[in-house]
Amino acid sequence: MIEHLKGMGLGAGFVCRVLELSESAYYARKKRPKPARRLRDEYLMPMIEQIHAESGGTYGARRITRALKRKGVEVARCTVERLMAELGLEGVIRGQRRRTTVPEPAAPRPPDLVDRNFTATRPNQLWVADLTYVRTWSGWVYVAFVLDVFSRVIVGWQVANHMRTELPLDTLEMALWRRKIKKSSGLIHHSDSEYVKYRMSRAS
After folding, report:
1. Residue (of 198, 195, 202, 131) closest to 169 by Cα position
2. What is the rounded radius of gyration, in angstroms, for the C-alpha atoms of the chain?
3. Which domain holds residue 12?
4. Do the Cβ atoms of 149 and 128 come closer than 8 Å?
């Protein structure tokens, strides 16, 4: 903790006084050699970070342990798990999917105006919408888009780090503004559970 606070520009003496610690004991402890386990941890941690980064953030403790052994570094899996937890790293669990919807049981279920017939004879007759997610170095991001079935052109899109209601609504607003859609257009906006299915003639 003291080293962390020192990194914020606070002096060791000031920090020790605030924490009611002995400044001489702090410096005496700093002079003591680090335990062998800690030295090995500091040797392993940069390699674990590198392997995790090179895997695109997908490798867990098992794969990282194997990768280290291929480099000639013998290490127990439990050690890798402990150091990954200390570094705040985690792998992707096979078969685990990121859930993008949480259905609301009390929400109304609008009728399906398309009836699985995804064809259109003119622009702005039928739009379909969807939402996907992408893993990045900074975490998960969510991409919402609206596609014109006739031209197969994406007419609206938004990217966010959340799945709140405004994400699909902002996407739809963008598409309406770009295509200058009027209430009498008869356009149908269709989506799955992430969105609301409704006829554009009822939209503002």
Report:
1. 195
2. 27
3. 2-87
4. yes
Residue at a domain's end among 87, 116, 150: 87
- Identify which of 147, 196, 198, 188 has the alpha carbon closest to the alpha carbon of residue 168: 196
- In the listed set 87, 111, 136, which residue is the last one of a domain according to the structure? 87
**Counted domains in the chain:** 2
- Name the helix (H) or strand (E) containing 141: strand 139-148
Domain co-membership, 73 together with 130: no
pLDDT in tens, the chain (204 residues): 445 444 444 565 655 565 566 666 656 666 666 678 878 888 999 999 999 988 888 888 999 999 999 999 999 999 999 898 888 888 876 555 555 555 555 555 666 677 777 888 999 999 988 888 887 777 778 888 899 999 989 999 999 888 777 888 898 899 999 999 888 888 888 876 444 433 333 333
Q: Is the pTM of this model over 0.70?
A: no
The residues pairing with 133 across neighbouring beta strands, listed in sequence order, are 142
| 191 within some domain | yes
